[in-house]
Fold:
Amino acid sequence: MKLSSLKYFFTYETKIPDGIGFKLFGIWHILCLLLCLAVTVVSLHWYWKAKAQKKQKFEKTIAMSLVGWMILRAIYIAVIGENFLYELPFHLCSMTGILCGIHCFTKWKWLGQMLYALCLPGAILALLFPNWNAYPLIHFISLEAILFHLGIILYVTCLLTSHEIVPQMKKMWQVIVFLAVVVPPIYVFDKKYQVNYMFVNRPSGGSPLEWLAQWMGNPGYLLGYAGLILLCIFLMGFGYEKFTGSK
Structure:
């Protein structure tokens, strides 16, 4: 990571030079992942021992910070004059920021199933295979994305430990219904405006979706994509019940 890259701290992807981004699973990416893991472990340890009032305050702080990051990013896009078409909250993780804010005040059980089975693994995969690595690691977008996805992980895992989110395999169908309602219109939107929300127009570079596309083609990879999502939902539900002994 070069210090000269700092001059591009607020430069948007359309104007940023090639070759100054961070490498997937390079040293800086791995260090970032380890730091996120450490923050998660320390936060969960504190949360586990905290009193109920402090737990609730922490949950709301995390949930509202997610909404705050989204607002801050929108302000950034407006100030630099870029097109909002590419920054709408139609990615899964962007939706999750809003859903965490809603869940924080409603504690809807179906939403808890969604946050656990779909949004939590989605946030983890986003950190493992970031689609913002064209930017340097020390860049507004990179830092915002890392803190945003880390916030999702913290929110969901904290509520898992306090049993405010209790995954149930028999309710995982609710997650599938949500996807069945949300994905088709996003696919149509992607095709019409040539954007790539939820990666249903083209796979994210360097991710398992790109490997699927190399094998199955485009749009053939979408079948594999759907299969992976269903497998993820099943494993998340089955894994929780197996680990906790609940049903």
Observations:
- The CA atoms of residues 78 and 84 lie 8 Å apart.
- The radius of gyration is 18 Å.
